Known about the structure:
Elements: H1 40-49, H2 52-55, H3 58-72, H4 81-87, H5 102-119, E1 127-130, E2 139-142, E3 150-156, E4 163-169, H6 172-176, H7 184-206, H8 219-224, E5 231-234, H9 238-247, H10 253-258, H11 272-280, H12 286-297, E6 306-308, H13 318-321, E7 323-327, H14 337-340, E8 345-348, E9 357-360, E10 370-372, E11 381-390, E12 397-403, H15 406-416, H16 419-429, E13 439-446, E14 455-462
Parallel strand pairs: 5-6, 5-7, 7-12
Antiparallel strand pairs: 1-2, 3-4, 8-9, 9-10, 11-12, 11-13, 13-14
Helix pairs in contact: 1-3, 3-5, 7-12
Amino acid sequence: MNQGDPSIPDFLVAPKAPANSPNVPVASSWKSVFNLAAEPRWQLAQRIVASRSFAKSILLSRFLLYVCEREITGKIAEISEQQIGVHVFGRRVGYNPGEDNIVRNYARQLRHRLDQYFLEEGREEELRLSIPRGKYVPVYSLNYFEERPLLVLPEHEADSGSPSETLVPATPAVVSSPPARRRPWLALGLGALLLIFGSAIVWRVTHRAPAYDADSSHPLWARLFDKSHQTLIVPSDAGIVMIQNLTGHLVPLSEYINRDYLSLKSPYNIDAQNMRDLDAQRYTNVTDLNAAMRFSHLPESNDGHLVVRFSRELHMGDLKDANVILLGSNFSNPWAELFEKNMNFEFSYQPHPNASLILNKHPQAGELSAYQNDAAEPSHRTYAVIGFVPNLNNTGWVLLAEGLTMAGTQAAVDTLFNRDAMRPLLGQFTNADDSLNPFEILIETRSFGSDSPQASVVATRVYKKHS
């Protein structure tokens, strides 16, 4: 990197992993124009490295820009301690991070400098960038401008193995009271009830209820339930949601495929047996089961090609050749991660209540750069995304109905089945030859528990499908 201009991302190309590695993002067959310089998250990183807190530290600037560039471009697998050591600090390929802790030391400094930036020069930034302890992948959230009290809290650095103390902004959750201790047996009991109820719903799906009237103006169903493809409905995985909530660790797709999360430690003393039980059982939520029923009732789905597949039993090959309906965002259905990285509206989660949001990578006139839950306010506002994109081999389609909450997912499904709402939108997404282009729909709704009383379309995107 040019030492005089730390903002230029000229990082070395990392060695390629085998094509079938679960850590390698699969290239999509459709693309929108991507301009790193126009990306709001990259612009934020540029402002941070130009600040007083970073201007005198070339290595910290390189560190931050490396992880931000890799996250924005979907190269999450390259954000590891060893890769950072090689590309940022010039360590040889294959060096042992256990014997050289330079990345962990600088990561600690980087977190402190980021806190300092958002308390001072970046106080009025719309987005906040952080590097969670124990990880190196950047996380983005809305930044609040009001004064926040400071507390001296022990910072248990999972990536360094030693605790330290640092001044950090205190969120309302920290100031008020410690979180209630969760009981593992309660979570498992609720999951068991969901399992029983889910079994009844799946029985209903597989034994066919009367179909809804056909809607000839809804070309979406014709694409998703064509006779040449199997169509998979994939409800969200409530078990992985409980594991993430109980451990405070966000599970990416690579860990989900390899079951790496089974080694996570929980502050709520979840023992290994309970963790294995959460992993083994097929837990999902009522919202997704109701959605599966609605799809199964469509007349277009009566050709015998419809299958309900549990998320943990899905395989990469299914997303290459079948038509797939993914219910839930990457937090509850990690397979959505494969497609969200190439979409304009991307979900960003943190292991804190109501701290999750949808990033608008390329805001248009009148749009926000991020949309966040407003669960604590009277409006109970939340958001969802409908995505319709080609499968991994460009031979079929993937429909995503994903919300920041269950109410958001319900709003996405309700919108799909709302003829008056979908007809004008599909008219915008359809070509003169009746072919359908990939598209995204951002939805705003209100949340009361898991119910969504109303929904409105906030923004849309349409793309040309590449053959």
